[in-house]
Amino acid sequence: MRRQGWLGLMVTGWLVGCGAAPEPVERQVGPEAMEVEALACGPGQVQEVKQGLPSRPSEFLEVAGALFFFTKEEDGDSLWKSDGTSAGTLKVKTLPRTGEQFISNPYAASDLLFFTVHEAGTGTSLWVSDGTSEGTRRVKTLPGCGDFAGLYGHQWINGVLTFFHQPCGIRDLDLWRSDGTEAGTFRIHDLASASSPPANTPPAPSHIFITGEADGTFKLWRSDGTAAGTYTLPIPGDQHLYERVAELDGTTLFVIKGQATGTELWRTDGTASGTWKLKRLDASTSGVLGTTVKHVVDGKVVFSFIDVDDGSQTEIWQSDGTEAGTVRVDTFGRPADFLGVAGSSAVVATFTADHRHMELRRLSLTGGGKALVATLENPRADQGYVADILDVVRTEGRIFITQLEFPWDGLGETYLSRWVTDGTAAGTRRLATRVATQDAYRTPFFVTGTGTVMFAHASEAGNLEPWVTDGTLAGTRPIADLWPGSAGSDPAGFRRLGDRVYFTALKADADPSLWSVPADLTCH
């Protein structure tokens, strides 16, 4: 979540709460958080895999058990491959360059890496790599208008890559496929009537997508990677708007809206007979899905719906993909942001009446009702600071939150604090806090898959270093001080491969290095 989303919620909250009596700020959580920032993990946890990379690598991807990444060099961008050892971290190939060049859309498919290379004057090309220099090659130069060409929505379907290609902008959309060869790379279907591209294409093997049309309606599509297997699915009525909800057990759930039908939740499995309405969410068409968070847990998707016509109240819904199993759990009588499921409760964040603090509230998904969990501490509230949520991840029944605290007038420093909640007051605590500068949006959480979370964080001194937390105060610590002093190593790009997590960081005045730590690392 970005600041602008929360500012919109804040303004809505002011409008709704105008004239209401201020609510008491109940149980601010945070003062008990001990400063453990000086206590780093024991020595030997971090390994420097490769020293002196030409530049900080871009996105890491796992392909056939190896780590792939790109670096920028004077003579062109280079593709690298690593098996997690220094000797096994090698440059695969430097891509030829005649002008300005950038690489985008890296996508791991089977034992291949596909990516797009755009070069000014020569257009956009699809490339593929099998991890060898000879096997890293241009597949095909795609049609475009001047220097423009858009590629997105990559999916691996039935042994081929499918993607959307928009060579000349709006109303010029095509569906393509590629098997990694020039002859096997071609257009499957002309989607030229679409005025907007597909949104949030699901994972394979269910390739279902929705396009907005020039007349304001939309089309629901299904594709198996072939021309014959790409077709539209019927949707009755006058529906003109849609929102995608989630993928659930081989089906896609989505919301459609029509003037005569209101706002409805539908499902599809990619067949005409498997596409039907589950339930009407609202009689009007003004309601919207609350946020991008739709949490799938225990075979059900939990999501929020904002009833704009009724004071922007936030409703919590859950669905198992059946009509009977699609129910509104309850309603919060205020704007709220759904953060996810912790335990058996949906957790939302909202503002106190004075708009200086953020509250966490829970709603039992099993009939236990609503309750205030905690009010998160904002120690500078009396100095004109307001709060925002910058990042949220979920693991093993807990929600990890980055709270952003910033001056409303924009004058002064910005602060970050890290929190965790299990949906109870006792399980909600501040884990760490720091002064934030321009790096605030470059410090997301990384879920390791072992119950811990890693992130880039810094103490009041401003040293940005790798951290780990297991959700306890004692277990929230810097992993290591890779660049002692005031500069900080600026770690980024956390990615798990096997039993280790890899990232890049700086060390003194040297070029960036590739580092790794155990994925199950804990520090107490």
Largest sheet: 5 strands, mixed
Mean pLDDT: 83
Q: Would you count the extended β strands for me?
A: 42
Q: What is the number of helical segments per DSSP (H or I, 4+ residues)?
A: 1
Tell me what the structure shows.
With 524 residues, the chain is an all-beta fold. It is built from one helix and 42 strands. The chain has a five-stranded mixed β-sheet. The chain is globular. The two termini are 31 Å apart.
Short structural description:
This protein is mainly β and 524 residues long. Strand 12 and strand 13 (174-178) form a beta hairpin.
Secondary-structure map with pairings?
Layout: H1 3-17, E1 28-29, E2 47-50, E3 61-63, E4 66-73, E5 76-82, E6 89-94, E7 101-109, E8 112-119, E9 123-129, E10 137-142, E11 150-157, E12 160-166, E13 174-178, E14 186-190, E15 194-196, E16 207-213, E17 218-223, E18 231-233, E19 241-248, E20 251-258, E21 262-268, E22 276-282, E23 288-289, E24 295-297, E25 300-307, E26 313-319, E27 327-332, E28 337-342, E29 345-351, E30 358-364, E31 370-376, E32 385-395, E33 398-407, E34 414-421, E35 429-436, E36 446-447, E37 453-458, E38 464-469, E39 477-478, E40 492-497, E41 500-505, E42 513-518
Parallel strand pairs: 1-31
Antiparallel strand pairs: 2-42, 3-4, 4-5, 5-6, 7-8, 8-9, 9-10, 11-12, 12-13, 13-14, 15-16, 16-17, 17-18, 19-20, 20-21, 21-22, 23-25, 24-25, 25-26, 26-27, 28-29, 29-30, 30-31, 32-33, 33-34, 34-35, 36-37, 37-38, 38-39, 40-41, 41-42
